[in-house]
Specification:
By secondary structure, the protein is an alpha/beta fold. It has a single domain, classed as Amidase signature (AS) enzymes. Helix content is 38%, strand content 12%. It is built from 15 helices and eleven strands. It has an eleven-stranded mixed sheet with strand order 1-3-2-4-6-5-10-11-9-7-8, sandwiched between helices. A hairpin with a 5-residue loop joins strand 10 and strand 11. Helix 9 crosses helix 12. The longest helix has 22 residues. The chain binds glutamine. Glutamine binds next to loops.
Length: 492
């Protein structure tokens, strides 16, 4: 069977109507993983036993005439910072290398209850800190479109899994762009929902006020399907919103943008953007207009100027606090026998990579007395201003269009010694997390070298449905996202 190009919706329908079984789909997924993992290295572990067990349970339910749920037999990959009971959850870090959590994340439970089959856990930048997946302690992931290039990050393994056709659906987490930027680099849809939409219970925290789980797909209809499964209120996450969620599947039928007001950001003209990205941006704006949208200009001076510095104060501050729990006592790695202090120092010294240490040091510094007022407090005020600037812009707009990233996928090693340049890869995505808004990246074209280029639509708070409508309308013009030609790409 050829599950490679099928959507989650098609797989679910096919299993339900007994055209093929969930176990056959699962085996097809494993075959592709075996064939291409040596080139791509998207996964840190394959959950073969658990996956097969779920697939068989789904098939049994179908045989007995029970409904296994909307994601019936759909294979999925999870970023390795979502807890899976009894199976490794490493966060791409040596410090958690041997840890097997005693519980499932809420999203994992919801996916399985909806009939989905978990195939594996995806590679990622350590603790989700990075934009290239090169900061994984277990080696980098390659971009399936060109294996000399990065897939983006930090959810690079999840993106590469969908792009290489292992699965039609993968979950990632996005603290400052980690779903949208890899979606752009790998030619996929990547949706970061409104903060509070998807439960973070069981998501290992990086920066709790910014982290949000979302999805990678190749079809707009799959975004709607996945969001309706995972986007539910959860009493186990105190930031999970109690707001009633709209019905998303009907948005995926939409085919025009009439009456929609889309904002183009005036300050983008001065931003450092690659020429190919700029021309795809111009073409996308024009396309929206042809499809009936009204294009307006909007000014967001604080957002583009101060988003990056603001994020790189607040995110490390929260990370320094969240990562204090990895002390050599409670989880995974444990070194140093002489004293408790010795244990902390040795475990954290050997267990964390350089980027994580850099964030912990920065975070501790900006929170320390004497510097708190100068850095953390000021950054909180800037965050507030960014949030208000967006809110004001959305008084007259339904969505804002920006590139997802300033460049297409860069080469492995290109920025890994230059943290500031790496940080700039997220200039267009970070502010969206600071304001808690939903953001969607979709593949809108290719560079002259044939690399995918994504465009980002940002919605107002709880404007997730609008983003789904935009995705579905544009899909009628651009077509769904394609798998990378991974059979042909050069590589190891
Ligand atoms: N690249 C950003 C960072 O390194 C965002 C990461 C993310 O969204 N998890 O912090």
């Amino acid at each position: 069977m050829h599950a490679r190009d099928m959507s989650a919706c098609d797989i679910s329908h096919g299993v339900r109507t007994k055209r093929f079984s969930a176990e056959e789909v699962f085996d097809a997924s494993l075959d592709r993983i075996r064939a291409f993992e040596p080139k791509i290295h998207a996964l840190l572990s394959v959950t073969e036993e658990r996956g097969r067990c779920t697939a068989r349970a789904v098939d049994d339910a179908v045989q007995e005439g029970r409904d296994p749920g909307p994601l019936c037999g759909v294979p999925v990959v999870l970023k390795d910072n979502m807890t899976t009971r009894g199976a490794p959850t490493t966060c791409g870090s040596k410090i958690l290398g041997s840890w097997k959590p005693p519980y499932d994340a809420t999203v994992v439970r919801l996916l399985e209850e909806a009939g989905s089959v978990i195939v594996g856990k995806a590679n990622m930048d350590e603790f989700a800190m990075g934009s290239s997946t090169e900061f994984s302690a277990f080696g980098p992931t390659a971009n399936p479109w060109d294996t000399d290039r990065v897939p983006g990050g930090s959810s690079g393994g999840s993106a590469a899994s969908v792009s290489a056709g292992y699965v039609p659906l993968a979950l990632g987490s996005d603290t400052g762009g980690s779903i949208r930027q890899p979606a752009s680099f790998c030619g996929l849809y990547g949706l970061k929902p409104t903060y509070g939409h998807v439960s973070r219970y069981g998501l290992v925290a990086f920066a709790s006020s910014l982290d949000q789980i979302g999805v990678f797909t190749r079809y707009a209809s799959d975004l709607a399907l996945a969001l309706s499964v995972i986007g539910v209120e959860d009493a186990k996450d105190m930031t999970s919103s109690r707001r009633a969620r709209p019905e998303y599947m009907s948005q995926a039928q939409s085919d025009d943008m009439r009456g929609m007001r889309i904002g183009l950001v005036a300050e983008l003209a001065k931003a450092p953007v690659d020429a190919d990205v700029r021309s795809v941006f111009d073409a996308t704006a024009k396309k929206c207009e042809q499809l009936g949208a009204e294009i307006r200009e909007v000014s967001l001076p604080t957002v583009l100027e101060y988003g990056v510095p603001c994020y790189y104060i607040l995110a490390p501050a929260e990370a320094s606090s969240n990562l204090a729990r990895f002390d050599g006592v409670r989880y995974g790695m444990s070194l140093g026998e002489d004293s408790l202090l010795d244990r902390y120092v040795e475990t954290r010294g050997a267990g964390f990579g350089d980027e994580v240490k850099r964030r912990i040091l920065t975070g501790t510094y900006v929170l320390s007395s004497g510097y708190y007022d100068a850095y953390y407090l000021v950054a909180q005020k800037v965050r507030r201003r960014i949030t208000m600037e967006f809110a004001k812009a959305f008084e007259g707009l339904d969505a804002i269009l920006l590139p997802t990233a300033p460049t297409p996928a860069f080469k492995k090693g290109e920025f890994s010694d230059d943290p500031i340049r790496m940080y700039m890869a997220d200039i267009f995505t970070l502010p969206v997390n600071l304001a808690g808004l939903p953001g969607l990246s979709l593949n809108a074209g290719f560079s002259r070298e044939g690399l995918p280029i994504g465009m980002q639509f940002i919605g107002p708070k709880w404007g997730d449905a609008t983003l789904l409508r935009l995705a579905s309308t544009l899909e009628r013009t651009f077509g769904p996202c394609r798998c990378a030609p991974v059979e042909e790409v050069k590589g190891a």
